[in-house]
Write a structure and sequence with these properties.
The protein is mainly β. The chain has strands at residues 3-7, 10-12, 18-25, 33-39, 46-52, 58-60, 68-73, 78-83, 92-99, 114-115, 119-123. The strands form 2 sheets. Strands 2, 4, 5, 6, 9, 10 and 11 form a 7-stranded mixed beta sheet that branches. A hairpin with a 5-residue loop joins strand 5 and strand 6.
């Protein structure tokens, strides 16, 4: 039974930082794509970043590049998202997800098969 459990969300002031974590259990994700997506109220879910579990190739959505860093601790089966220079537009529910393979140059909801429950990030 695959489980993805996010943590680390909260309320932060503009310009601040947060570190999200996602602990995966029930499956060892080999050559999988693990990523973060987010959904703001009234908006569609959008991709934030992904990392391939084999080789560590990463991809970031344009608006997050340079501000967010995705990383994977393979030993602990834990995914992280370090977010800096946060702006109010980053306010959303952030979801951890896993899928059978990363697609080059894009990140979409349909690329992922497993999802966490989400962790709320509010920048205000």
């Amino acid at each position: 039974h695959v489980q993805l459990v996010e943590s680390g969300g909260g309320l932060v002031q503009p310009g601040g930082s947060l570190r999200l974590s996602c602990e995966a259990s029930g499956y060892k994700f080999v050559n999988y794509c693990m990523g973060w997506l987010r959904q703001a109220p009234g908006k569609e879910r959008e991709g934030v970043a992904y990392v391939n579990t084999d080789g560590g190739r990463t991809f970031y959505a344009d608006s997050m590049m340079g501000r967010f860093t995705i990383s994977l601790d393979n030993a602990k089966n834990t995914l992280h998202l370090q977010m800096t220079s946060l702006i109010p537009e980053d306010t959303a529910m952030y979801y951890c997800a896993a899928g059978p393979g990363c697609v080059r140059h894009r990140i979409r909801q349909s690329d992922f098969a497993y999802w966490g429950q989400g962790t709320q990030v509010t920048v205000s």
